Protein backbone atom coordinates (compact mmCIF):
# COMPACT_ATOMS: atom_id res chain seq x y z
CA UNK A 1 0.00 0.00 0.00
CA UNK A 2 1.35 3.41 -0.88
CA UNK A 3 -0.38 6.30 0.80
CA UNK A 4 1.84 8.94 -0.72
CA UNK A 5 0.75 11.49 -3.24
CA UNK A 6 4.03 10.83 -5.12
CA UNK A 7 4.86 7.95 -7.46
CA UNK A 8 8.61 8.32 -7.07
CA UNK A 9 10.82 9.78 -4.39
CA UNK A 10 14.30 10.76 -5.57
CA UNK A 11 17.06 11.21 -2.99
CA UNK A 12 19.61 13.74 -4.30
CA UNK A 13 19.30 16.74 -6.61
CA UNK A 14 22.51 16.39 -8.63
CA UNK A 15 22.24 16.02 -12.40
CA UNK A 16 21.48 12.29 -11.98
CA UNK A 17 18.47 12.96 -9.75
CA UNK A 18 17.22 15.86 -11.86
CA UNK A 19 17.55 13.90 -15.10
CA UNK A 20 15.64 10.97 -13.57
CA UNK A 21 12.95 13.33 -12.27
CA UNK A 22 12.57 14.99 -15.67
CA UNK A 23 12.12 11.68 -17.50
CA UNK A 24 9.56 10.41 -14.97
CA UNK A 25 7.63 13.68 -14.94
CA UNK A 26 7.54 13.64 -18.74
CA UNK A 27 5.90 10.20 -18.44
CA UNK A 28 3.21 11.64 -16.16
CA UNK A 29 4.66 10.55 -12.81
CA UNK A 30 4.35 12.63 -9.66
CA UNK A 31 7.91 13.08 -8.39
CA UNK A 32 9.35 14.38 -5.13
CA UNK A 33 13.09 15.17 -4.91
CA UNK A 34 14.68 15.52 -1.49
CA UNK A 35 18.09 17.12 -1.13
CA UNK A 36 20.29 17.22 1.98
CA UNK A 37 22.02 20.50 1.11
CA UNK A 38 20.43 23.96 1.29
CA UNK A 39 20.95 24.27 -2.49
CA UNK A 40 20.34 21.96 -5.43
CA UNK A 41 22.80 20.62 -7.98
CA UNK A 42 25.27 18.49 -5.99
CA UNK A 43 28.69 18.66 -7.60
CA UNK A 44 27.27 21.00 -10.24
CA UNK A 45 26.32 23.77 -7.85
CA UNK A 46 27.69 27.08 -6.65
CA UNK A 47 27.23 28.50 -3.19
CA UNK A 48 28.60 31.12 -0.86
CA UNK A 49 31.37 29.90 1.47
CA UNK A 50 31.87 32.51 4.22
CA UNK A 51 31.24 35.33 1.77
CA UNK A 52 33.08 33.92 -1.24
CA UNK A 53 31.20 32.46 -4.20
CA UNK A 54 32.50 28.92 -4.83
CA UNK A 55 31.69 25.68 -6.64
CA UNK A 56 33.01 22.12 -6.39
CA UNK A 57 35.55 23.10 -9.03
CA UNK A 58 35.53 24.45 -12.56
CA UNK A 59 33.48 22.34 -14.96
CA UNK A 60 33.73 22.11 -18.72
CA UNK A 61 30.91 21.07 -21.00
CA UNK A 62 32.31 18.92 -23.81
CA UNK A 63 30.96 19.59 -27.30
CA UNK A 64 30.21 15.94 -28.05
CA UNK A 65 27.97 15.43 -25.00
CA UNK A 66 24.47 14.41 -26.11
CA UNK A 67 22.35 13.45 -23.10
CA UNK A 68 23.03 16.64 -21.12
CA UNK A 69 22.30 19.10 -23.96
CA UNK A 70 19.26 17.02 -24.90
CA UNK A 71 17.91 17.27 -21.33
CA UNK A 72 18.56 21.01 -21.26
CA UNK A 73 16.87 21.66 -24.59
CA UNK A 74 13.78 19.69 -23.52
CA UNK A 75 13.70 21.86 -20.39
CA UNK A 76 13.93 24.92 -22.71
CA UNK A 77 17.42 25.87 -21.57
CA UNK A 78 19.70 26.80 -24.45
CA UNK A 79 23.20 25.37 -23.85
CA UNK A 80 24.73 28.11 -26.01
CA UNK A 81 23.33 30.87 -23.80
CA UNK A 82 24.69 29.17 -20.70
CA UNK A 83 28.20 28.60 -22.06
CA UNK A 84 31.17 30.36 -23.59
CA UNK A 85 32.84 28.03 -26.06
CA UNK A 86 36.61 27.87 -25.76
CA UNK A 87 38.53 27.31 -28.97
CA UNK A 88 41.92 26.49 -27.47
CA UNK A 89 43.55 25.07 -24.37
CA UNK A 90 47.03 25.63 -23.01
CA UNK A 91 49.75 23.39 -21.57
CA UNK A 92 52.37 25.12 -19.39
CA UNK A 93 55.53 23.33 -18.38
CA UNK A 94 57.12 23.92 -14.97
CA UNK A 95 60.24 25.63 -16.34
CA UNK A 96 58.47 28.99 -16.26
CA UNK A 97 58.99 29.49 -19.99
CA UNK A 98 57.36 26.85 -22.12
CA UNK A 99 53.68 27.14 -22.86
CA UNK A 100 51.81 25.76 -25.85
CA UNK A 101 48.40 26.55 -27.28
CA UNK A 102 46.36 23.72 -28.77
CA UNK A 103 43.18 24.12 -30.83
CA UNK A 104 40.17 22.07 -29.81
CA UNK A 105 37.44 23.30 -32.12
CA UNK A 106 38.00 21.97 -35.65
CA UNK A 107 34.94 23.75 -37.05
CA UNK A 108 35.19 27.07 -35.24
CA UNK A 109 38.96 27.30 -35.17
CA UNK A 110 40.37 24.97 -37.85
CA UNK A 111 43.74 26.71 -38.29
CA UNK A 112 44.55 26.67 -34.55
CA UNK A 113 43.43 23.04 -34.30
CA UNK A 114 45.69 21.94 -37.14
CA UNK A 115 48.70 24.11 -36.29
CA UNK A 116 48.40 23.24 -32.59
CA UNK A 117 48.70 19.56 -33.42
CA UNK A 118 51.69 20.00 -35.73
CA UNK A 119 53.62 22.70 -33.85
CA UNK A 120 54.24 23.04 -30.08
CA UNK A 121 57.40 21.02 -30.54
CA UNK A 122 58.95 22.33 -27.29
CA UNK A 123 56.13 20.66 -25.39
CA UNK A 124 56.19 17.50 -27.41
CA UNK A 125 58.58 16.67 -30.24
CA UNK A 126 57.35 15.17 -33.53
CA UNK A 127 58.84 11.78 -32.53
CA UNK A 128 57.00 11.90 -29.20
CA UNK A 129 53.76 12.80 -30.98
CA UNK A 130 54.26 9.89 -33.37
CA UNK A 131 54.81 7.54 -30.42
CA UNK A 132 51.22 8.23 -29.31
CA UNK A 133 49.67 6.85 -32.53
CA UNK A 134 49.95 3.09 -31.82
CA UNK A 135 48.85 3.70 -28.20
CA UNK A 136 45.68 5.46 -29.37
CA UNK A 137 44.95 2.91 -32.10
CA UNK A 138 45.43 -0.08 -29.76
CA UNK A 139 43.44 1.57 -26.96
CA UNK A 140 40.45 2.29 -29.16
CA UNK A 141 40.61 -1.24 -30.61
CA UNK A 142 40.66 -2.89 -27.17
CA UNK A 143 37.90 -0.56 -25.98
CA UNK A 144 35.57 -1.87 -28.65
CA UNK A 145 36.68 -5.52 -28.36
CA UNK A 146 37.23 -6.09 -24.64
CA UNK A 147 36.72 -3.05 -22.40
CA UNK A 148 37.21 -5.06 -19.20
CA UNK A 149 40.73 -6.04 -20.32
CA UNK A 150 41.50 -2.34 -20.84
CA UNK A 151 40.42 -1.70 -17.25
CA UNK A 152 43.26 -3.96 -16.07
CA UNK A 153 45.83 -1.38 -17.26
CA UNK A 154 46.73 2.04 -15.99
CA UNK A 155 47.26 4.66 -18.70
CA UNK A 156 51.00 4.62 -17.94
CA UNK A 157 51.23 0.82 -18.25
CA UNK A 158 49.28 0.80 -21.50
CA UNK A 159 51.39 3.68 -22.84
CA UNK A 160 54.67 1.91 -22.06
CA UNK A 161 53.38 -1.35 -23.57
CA UNK A 162 52.76 0.52 -26.82
CA UNK A 163 56.02 2.47 -26.93
CA UNK A 164 54.85 5.93 -25.84
CA UNK A 165 57.90 8.05 -25.06
CA UNK A 166 58.37 9.52 -21.59
CA UNK A 167 57.89 13.13 -22.70
CA UNK A 168 54.59 12.27 -24.40
CA UNK A 169 53.46 10.46 -21.26
CA UNK A 170 54.38 13.38 -18.98
CA UNK A 171 53.38 16.31 -21.19
CA UNK A 172 50.27 14.98 -22.96
CA UNK A 173 48.80 11.96 -21.18
CA UNK A 174 49.58 13.32 -17.69
CA UNK A 175 47.47 16.48 -18.19
CA UNK A 176 44.64 14.44 -19.70
CA UNK A 177 44.39 12.25 -16.60
CA UNK A 178 45.41 14.54 -13.69
CA UNK A 179 43.53 17.51 -15.13
CA UNK A 180 40.35 15.57 -15.92
CA UNK A 181 39.73 13.03 -13.15
CA UNK A 182 42.52 14.05 -10.79
CA UNK A 183 44.81 10.99 -10.84
CA UNK A 184 48.22 10.67 -12.54
CA UNK A 185 48.55 8.24 -15.51
CA UNK A 186 50.09 5.61 -13.19
CA UNK A 187 46.79 5.41 -11.25
CA UNK A 188 44.20 6.13 -13.95
CA UNK A 189 42.39 3.30 -15.71
CA UNK A 190 43.07 3.04 -19.45
CA UNK A 191 39.37 2.15 -19.81
CA UNK A 192 38.28 5.48 -18.34
CA UNK A 193 40.85 7.32 -20.47
CA UNK A 194 39.80 5.81 -23.80
CA UNK A 195 36.14 5.51 -22.83
CA UNK A 196 35.90 9.25 -22.24
CA UNK A 197 37.66 10.24 -25.43
CA UNK A 198 36.29 7.58 -27.80
CA UNK A 199 32.83 9.20 -28.24
CA UNK A 200 34.68 12.31 -29.45
CA UNK A 201 36.42 10.47 -32.30
CA UNK A 202 33.41 10.02 -34.65
CA UNK A 203 32.10 13.40 -33.48
CA UNK A 204 35.50 15.14 -33.86
CA UNK A 205 33.85 17.97 -35.78
CA UNK A 206 31.66 18.70 -32.72
CA UNK A 207 34.66 19.03 -30.43
CA UNK A 208 34.81 22.21 -28.38
CA UNK A 209 34.82 22.94 -24.67
CA UNK A 210 32.26 25.16 -22.94
CA UNK A 211 32.91 27.18 -19.78
CA UNK A 212 29.86 28.23 -17.73
CA UNK A 213 28.58 31.84 -17.95
CA UNK A 214 27.87 31.99 -14.22
CA UNK A 215 27.71 29.59 -11.27
CA UNK A 216 26.21 26.23 -12.28
CA UNK A 217 23.28 26.46 -9.85
CA UNK A 218 22.42 29.86 -11.24
CA UNK A 219 22.66 29.14 -14.97
CA UNK A 220 21.82 25.43 -15.23
CA UNK A 221 20.28 23.93 -12.09
CA UNK A 222 17.79 26.68 -11.17
CA UNK A 223 16.25 26.71 -14.68
CA UNK A 224 16.13 22.88 -14.58
CA UNK A 225 14.29 23.04 -11.25
CA UNK A 226 11.83 25.53 -12.72
CA UNK A 227 11.15 23.13 -15.60
CA UNK A 228 10.60 20.32 -13.10
CA UNK A 229 8.26 22.37 -10.94
CA UNK A 230 6.28 23.23 -14.05
CA UNK A 231 5.83 19.49 -14.55
CA UNK A 232 4.47 19.05 -11.04
CA UNK A 233 7.66 17.93 -9.23
CA UNK A 234 8.21 18.92 -5.63
CA UNK A 235 11.75 19.76 -4.51
CA UNK A 236 12.57 19.81 -0.78
CA UNK A 237 15.98 21.25 0.15
CA UNK A 238 17.58 20.80 3.60
CA UNK A 239 15.96 17.36 3.77
CA UNK A 240 18.56 14.62 4.31
CA UNK A 241 17.38 11.03 4.06
CA UNK A 242 18.62 8.90 6.94
CA UNK A 243 17.58 5.41 5.89
CA UNK A 244 15.28 3.31 3.74
CA UNK A 245 11.87 2.04 4.84
CA UNK A 246 11.08 -1.55 3.89
CA UNK A 247 7.93 -3.62 4.06
CA UNK A 248 7.91 -7.27 2.97
CA UNK A 249 11.26 -6.81 1.19
CA UNK A 250 9.93 -3.85 -0.78
CA UNK A 251 11.33 -0.33 -0.41
CA UNK A 252 8.38 1.87 0.48
CA UNK A 253 10.06 5.18 1.29
CA UNK A 254 12.79 6.86 3.30
CA UNK A 255 13.18 7.97 6.88
CA UNK A 256 14.37 11.55 7.33
CA UNK A 257 17.14 12.83 9.61
CA UNK A 258 14.76 15.45 10.95
CA UNK A 259 12.29 12.67 11.87
CA UNK A 260 9.35 11.16 10.04
CA UNK A 261 9.20 9.15 6.84
CA UNK A 262 8.23 9.82 3.26
CA UNK A 263 6.49 7.09 1.30
CA UNK A 264 6.35 6.46 -2.44
CA UNK A 265 5.84 3.53 -4.80
CA UNK A 266 9.44 3.89 -5.97
CA UNK A 267 12.60 5.28 -4.40
CA UNK A 268 15.60 6.31 -6.50
CA UNK A 269 18.84 6.79 -4.58
CA UNK A 270 20.57 9.51 -6.65
CA UNK A 271 23.25 10.54 -4.19
CA UNK A 272 27.03 10.44 -4.60
CA UNK A 273 28.54 6.97 -4.07
CA UNK A 274 29.51 7.34 -0.39
CA UNK A 275 26.04 8.53 0.66
CA UNK A 276 24.44 5.75 -1.41
CA UNK A 277 26.53 3.19 0.46
CA UNK A 278 25.49 4.67 3.80
CA UNK A 279 21.81 4.34 2.87
CA UNK A 280 22.04 0.91 1.25
CA UNK A 281 24.54 -0.91 3.47
CA UNK A 282 22.34 -1.34 6.58
CA UNK A 283 19.43 -3.10 4.86
CA UNK A 284 21.32 -4.79 2.00
CA UNK A 285 24.95 -5.17 3.16
CA UNK A 286 24.53 -8.94 3.45
CA UNK A 287 22.94 -9.43 0.03
CA UNK A 288 24.83 -10.68 -3.01
CA UNK A 289 23.62 -7.91 -5.34
CA UNK A 290 25.06 -5.22 -3.02
CA UNK A 291 28.54 -6.78 -2.68
CA UNK A 292 30.12 -5.24 -5.84
CA UNK A 293 28.89 -1.76 -4.88
CA UNK A 294 30.18 -2.31 -1.36
CA UNK A 295 33.61 -3.05 -2.86
CA UNK A 296 33.63 -0.20 -5.41
CA UNK A 297 36.38 2.09 -4.08
CA UNK A 298 35.99 5.86 -3.75
CA UNK A 299 38.46 8.71 -4.22
CA UNK A 300 38.69 12.30 -2.98
CA UNK A 301 38.63 15.53 -4.98
CA UNK A 302 40.25 18.79 -3.91
CA UNK A 303 40.18 22.20 -5.58
CA UNK A 304 41.47 25.61 -4.60
CA UNK A 305 39.54 28.65 -5.79
CA UNK A 306 41.11 32.10 -5.61
CA UNK A 307 39.82 35.64 -5.96
CA UNK A 308 42.51 37.86 -7.43
CA UNK A 309 43.24 41.56 -7.82
CA UNK A 310 43.48 41.03 -11.60
CA UNK A 311 43.17 38.07 -13.98
CA UNK A 312 45.93 35.47 -13.71
CA UNK A 313 45.58 34.50 -17.36
CA UNK A 314 44.73 36.45 -20.52
CA UNK A 315 41.84 34.12 -21.46
CA UNK A 316 39.24 32.04 -19.61
CA UNK A 317 40.21 28.60 -20.88
CA UNK A 318 41.50 25.26 -19.64
CA UNK A 319 45.19 25.25 -18.83
CA UNK A 320 47.17 22.20 -17.74
CA UNK A 321 50.21 22.25 -15.47
CA UNK A 322 51.95 18.89 -15.90
CA UNK A 323 54.74 18.23 -13.42
CA UNK A 324 53.03 20.36 -10.75
CA UNK A 325 50.21 19.74 -8.28
CA UNK A 326 47.91 21.89 -10.43
CA UNK A 327 46.35 19.23 -12.64
CA UNK A 328 44.31 21.80 -14.53
CA UNK A 329 43.09 25.30 -13.93
CA UNK A 330 40.95 27.95 -15.51
CA UNK A 331 40.68 31.69 -15.27
CA UNK A 332 36.95 32.43 -14.72
CA UNK A 333 36.72 36.20 -14.22
CA UNK A 334 35.28 36.84 -17.69
CA UNK A 335 32.78 34.00 -17.66
CA UNK A 336 31.75 32.12 -14.50
CA UNK A 337 32.58 34.68 -11.79
CA UNK A 338 32.69 38.09 -13.49
CA UNK A 339 31.90 39.99 -10.26
CA UNK A 340 35.58 39.94 -9.23
CA UNK A 341 38.57 41.32 -11.15
CA UNK A 342 40.39 37.98 -11.18
CA UNK A 343 39.20 34.45 -10.35
CA UNK A 344 40.92 31.14 -10.86
CA UNK A 345 39.86 27.58 -10.03
CA UNK A 346 42.50 24.83 -9.77
CA UNK A 347 42.06 21.06 -9.62
CA UNK A 348 44.74 19.54 -7.39
CA UNK A 349 46.43 16.28 -8.22
CA UNK A 350 46.82 13.74 -6.73
CA UNK A 351 43.96 14.60 -4.38
CA UNK A 352 45.05 12.16 -1.62
CA UNK A 353 48.04 14.45 -0.94
CA UNK A 354 45.77 17.42 -0.22
CA UNK A 355 42.68 15.96 1.37
CA UNK A 356 43.95 16.41 4.94
CA UNK A 357 46.43 19.25 4.36
CA UNK A 358 45.65 22.50 6.21
CA UNK A 359 44.34 25.23 3.90
CA UNK A 360 47.33 27.54 4.38
CA UNK A 361 49.75 24.76 3.37
CA UNK A 362 47.64 23.99 0.30
CA UNK A 363 47.82 27.67 -0.63
CA UNK A 364 51.62 27.75 -0.14
CA UNK A 365 52.12 24.60 -2.21
CA UNK A 366 49.92 25.91 -5.03
CA UNK A 367 51.68 29.31 -5.08
CA UNK A 368 55.08 27.57 -5.28
CA UNK A 369 53.90 25.42 -8.21
CA UNK A 370 52.25 28.40 -9.93
CA UNK A 371 55.66 30.14 -9.72
CA UNK A 372 57.17 27.19 -11.57
CA UNK A 373 54.55 27.71 -14.31
CA UNK A 374 55.61 31.36 -14.60
CA UNK A 375 52.50 32.70 -12.82
CA UNK A 376 52.69 35.12 -9.89
CA UNK A 377 49.65 33.85 -8.05
CA UNK A 378 50.72 34.97 -4.57
CA UNK A 379 50.99 38.65 -5.53
CA UNK A 380 47.47 38.67 -7.00
CA UNK A 381 45.65 36.46 -4.46
CA UNK A 382 43.12 38.35 -2.30
CA UNK A 383 41.11 35.45 -0.90
CA UNK A 384 40.88 31.71 -1.41
CA UNK A 385 38.91 28.62 -0.42
CA UNK A 386 39.95 24.98 -0.49
CA UNK A 387 36.98 22.78 -1.37
CA UNK A 388 37.52 19.12 -0.54
CA UNK A 389 35.38 16.01 -0.52
CA UNK A 390 36.81 12.75 0.75
CA UNK A 391 34.68 10.25 -1.16
CA UNK A 392 32.16 11.65 -3.62
CA UNK A 393 33.77 9.96 -6.64
CA UNK A 394 34.14 6.31 -7.39
CA UNK A 395 37.81 5.61 -7.94
CA UNK A 396 38.92 5.66 -11.58
CA UNK A 397 41.92 3.46 -10.75
CA UNK A 398 42.22 0.24 -12.81
CA UNK A 399 39.86 -2.53 -11.76
CA UNK A 400 36.84 -0.46 -10.63
CA UNK A 401 34.58 -1.01 -13.62
CA UNK A 402 33.43 -4.51 -12.65
CA UNK A 403 32.05 -3.16 -9.36
CA UNK A 404 29.85 -0.39 -10.84
CA UNK A 405 26.18 -1.27 -10.24
CA UNK A 406 23.33 -1.15 -12.71
CA UNK A 407 20.53 1.34 -12.06
CA UNK A 408 18.00 -1.47 -11.82
CA UNK A 409 18.21 -3.41 -8.54
CA UNK A 410 16.56 -6.73 -7.61
CA UNK A 411 14.74 -4.98 -4.75
CA UNK A 412 11.15 -4.00 -5.63
CA UNK A 413 10.66 -0.24 -5.40
CA UNK A 414 14.39 0.62 -5.47
CA UNK A 415 16.56 2.03 -8.28
CA UNK A 416 19.95 3.77 -8.30
CA UNK A 417 21.20 6.81 -10.19
CA UNK A 418 24.51 8.66 -10.01
CA UNK A 419 27.71 9.00 -11.99
CA UNK A 420 29.16 5.89 -10.28
CA UNK A 421 26.38 3.65 -11.62
CA UNK A 422 27.03 1.87 -14.89
CA UNK A 423 26.80 4.03 -17.98
CA UNK A 424 29.40 4.76 -20.65
CA UNK A 425 30.44 8.30 -19.68
CA UNK A 426 32.04 7.58 -16.29
CA UNK A 427 32.11 10.34 -13.63
CA UNK A 428 30.99 13.29 -15.73
CA UNK A 429 27.91 15.50 -16.04
CA UNK A 430 27.00 13.53 -19.16
CA UNK A 431 27.38 10.25 -17.22
CA UNK A 432 25.18 11.54 -14.40
CA UNK A 433 22.40 12.52 -16.84
CA UNK A 434 22.63 9.14 -18.60
CA UNK A 435 22.40 7.35 -15.24
CA UNK A 436 19.27 9.33 -14.32
CA UNK A 437 17.61 8.37 -17.58
CA UNK A 438 18.46 4.69 -17.03
CA UNK A 439 17.11 4.88 -13.47
CA UNK A 440 13.85 6.28 -14.87
CA UNK A 441 13.72 3.30 -17.24
CA UNK A 442 14.23 0.98 -14.27
CA UNK A 443 11.32 2.65 -12.43
CA UNK A 444 9.06 2.50 -15.47
CA UNK A 445 10.11 -1.06 -16.34
CA UNK A 446 10.66 -0.14 -19.98
CA UNK A 447 13.05 1.70 -22.26
CA UNK A 448 12.44 5.34 -23.09
CA UNK A 449 12.48 6.30 -26.73
C1 LIG B 1 36.14 19.47 -9.17
C2 LIG B 1 35.23 18.80 -10.14
C3 LIG B 1 35.38 19.05 -11.50
C4 LIG B 1 34.55 18.41 -12.42
N1 LIG B 1 34.67 18.71 -13.74
C5 LIG B 1 33.81 18.18 -14.63
C6 LIG B 1 33.86 18.60 -15.98
O1 LIG B 1 34.66 19.45 -16.37
N2 LIG B 1 32.97 18.03 -16.87
C7 LIG B 1 32.06 17.08 -16.46
O2 LIG B 1 31.28 16.62 -17.30
N3 LIG B 1 32.00 16.68 -15.16
C8 LIG B 1 32.85 17.20 -14.25
N4 LIG B 1 32.79 16.83 -12.93
C9 LIG B 1 31.95 15.66 -12.55
C10 LIG B 1 30.48 16.02 -12.35
O3 LIG B 1 30.32 17.13 -11.51
C11 LIG B 1 29.78 14.82 -11.69
O4 LIG B 1 30.06 13.64 -12.39
C12 LIG B 1 28.25 14.97 -11.65
O5 LIG B 1 27.88 16.27 -11.32
C13 LIG B 1 27.69 13.98 -10.63
O6 LIG B 1 26.29 14.14 -10.51
P1 LIG B 1 25.45 13.15 -9.59
O7 LIG B 1 24.05 13.60 -9.68
O8 LIG B 1 25.79 11.75 -9.91
O9 LIG B 1 26.01 13.38 -8.10
P2 LIG B 1 26.03 14.70 -7.21
O10 LIG B 1 26.11 15.91 -8.07
O11 LIG B 1 27.12 14.50 -6.21
O12 LIG B 1 24.61 14.73 -6.49
C14 LIG B 1 24.30 13.96 -5.35
C15 LIG B 1 23.33 14.75 -4.47
O13 LIG B 1 22.84 13.90 -3.44
C16 LIG B 1 22.71 14.70 -2.26
N5 LIG B 1 22.66 13.81 -1.10
C17 LIG B 1 23.65 13.04 -0.57
N6 LIG B 1 23.21 12.36 0.49
C18 LIG B 1 21.90 12.68 0.66
C19 LIG B 1 20.89 12.29 1.60
N7 LIG B 1 21.16 11.42 2.57
N8 LIG B 1 19.66 12.83 1.47
C20 LIG B 1 19.37 13.72 0.48
N9 LIG B 1 20.30 14.14 -0.42
C21 LIG B 1 21.55 13.62 -0.35
C22 LIG B 1 23.98 15.55 -2.30
O14 LIG B 1 23.87 16.67 -1.42
C23 LIG B 1 24.01 15.94 -3.78
O15 LIG B 1 23.27 17.11 -4.04
C24 LIG B 1 33.59 17.46 -11.98
C25 LIG B 1 33.41 17.25 -10.60
C26 LIG B 1 34.23 17.90 -9.69
C27 LIG B 1 34.04 17.66 -8.22
UniProtKB/TrEMBL annotation:
InterPro entries: Amino_oxidase (IPR002937), FAD/NAD-bd_sf (IPR036188), Zeta_carotene_desat/Oxidored (IPR050464). One of its GO terms (molecular function) is oxidoreductase activity. Residues 15-444 form the Amine oxidase domain. Pfam families: Amino_oxidase (PF01593). Transmembrane segments: none annotated. This is FAD-dependent oxidoreductase. It comes from Paenibacillus chitinolyticus.
Amino acid sequence: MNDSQFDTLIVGSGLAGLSCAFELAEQGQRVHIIEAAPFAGGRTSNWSDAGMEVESGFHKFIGFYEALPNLLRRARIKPNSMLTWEKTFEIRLPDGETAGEFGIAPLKSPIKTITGAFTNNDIISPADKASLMPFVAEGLKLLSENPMELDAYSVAEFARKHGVKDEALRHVLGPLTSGVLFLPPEDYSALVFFGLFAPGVPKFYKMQIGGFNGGMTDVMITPLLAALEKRGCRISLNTPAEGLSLEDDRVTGVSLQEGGTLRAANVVIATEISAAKRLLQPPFGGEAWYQPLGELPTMPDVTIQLELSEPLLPQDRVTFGPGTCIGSFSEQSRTTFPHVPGRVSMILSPPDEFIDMPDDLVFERVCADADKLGLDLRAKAKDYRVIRRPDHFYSVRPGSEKFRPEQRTPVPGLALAGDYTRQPMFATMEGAVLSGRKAAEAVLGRELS
